[in-house]
Amino acid sequence: MTHGSEGPLLDWNSAYVDNWAPWDIGRPQPVWIDIADEITSPVLDSGCGTGEHALMLAERGHEVVGIDISPRAIELAREKATQRGLDADFRVGDVLELDRLGQRFATVIDSAVFHVFGDVDRARYIKSLASVLDPGGILFLLVFSEHTPGADGPRRVTQAELRMAFANGWDVRQIEPALIDVREDYGLDPARAWLARIARTAANPPAT
Asked: Is residue 4 part of a domain?
């Protein structure tokens, strides 16, 4: 995860220090396993948490960088990589400042990060993504959809919002229904979500 106006570093780090993060299910979300064959190297896992998705891709032979604002999450991701004998590069950093990585990627995956942002930080995040994704590269974006009942948890996102947010310098190629699993000890059904495939079409990030 990351932070913006919605939450300081301490909030996200405590999710892993105190072990209350409902999204940290100890395995990859099924949707990423289903589409793994579509992903090409190098890959950035934006808001990687404890690294399950990055490690799954590393196991498949991909060059992967994972970034997260939480030092504890990155510590756990590195421990997993060592235990599993996998080569993945995990870094502490803010996904709103991805240009600081000094790298570009053919693929970026976002597993439930975009929906934590309000409108201002959402625009910053899109510009940040544009700074690291190759022209023609693909962003795979998994977000809570408006079909998830209740008001708890992150902001719901509609297809129309996604298409509007990525209107300039991007090509929203597909948006399909998906699910986001929650830790079993929370006793909750999977959240309804959208999985979007979004191509970068311009060489330079759009102005905000």
From this structure: no
Question: Which domain CATH number covers 39?
Answer: 3.40.50.150
pTM of the model: 0.91
| Span 158-181, pLDDT tens digits | 999 999 999 999 999 999 999 999
Nearest to 95 by CA among 73, 60, 76, 121: 121
107 backbone dihedrals φ, ψ, rounded to 5°: -140, 140
Cα(33)–Cα(3) distance, integer angstroms: 26
Nearest CA-CA partner of 58 in 74, 42, 79: 42
- Give dist(CA 94, CA 16) in Å, integer: 16
What single-letter DSSP state applies at residue 180? E
Per DSSP, the three-state class of 195 is: strand
